[in-house]
Fold each of these.
Amino acid sequence: MLSDVVPKIHVFVVLFNYTNYILMSMMAYGLFMFIAVSGKKYVGSKKKNFMCFIPVIVTSLFITAAYIIDPLFWINEKEELNSLYYPIMFSIPSLYLIAGHI
């Protein structure tokens, strides 16, 4: 496995997972906006577009603040993600996908 070859450095593990979360949220937001524009719902003004983007901002700030307060909150000593990270990581993208299809 690649994880046996590449050394796990705490800063890179955190940075990679944070970048992964941001990219996944942005892709889900982009798909949501595409669906919203196609169906002519949820959008129409910059204020509504910004309101739809607020969940990404809030959870990104939450993940960042949790890491600053306690660096081992998301990642344990073995450089593995804790079980709390996965529900938060998938909640906002799932919310966008579900809301886009309703």
Amino acid sequence: MTSVTIDCFGNRNDLAPERFRTMAGEKHAHLIDAQEGVTYIGFGPAAVVGPIHKIVTEGTVTTIWWAYGLWADRETLTYASTKNDVLTIQVAE
């Protein structure tokens, strides 16, 4: 296993540096789960590990978080504090 850095759309800095942390790397929503005050957005098939955004609305304030994992685990994932943060994940070499 090796460590790689990904952005909020799952773009890896080692494979696509021109897309990493740019609007060119933005993906389209594939899955949406809207609950009261919280909306989860997935960017790939449910059975595939990928980026998930969590949008939380409290009163007039809306916060966007993101994580990397399975859609089924969306409610229990550890989310990065902003879409500008990057995450380090382990991938097979």
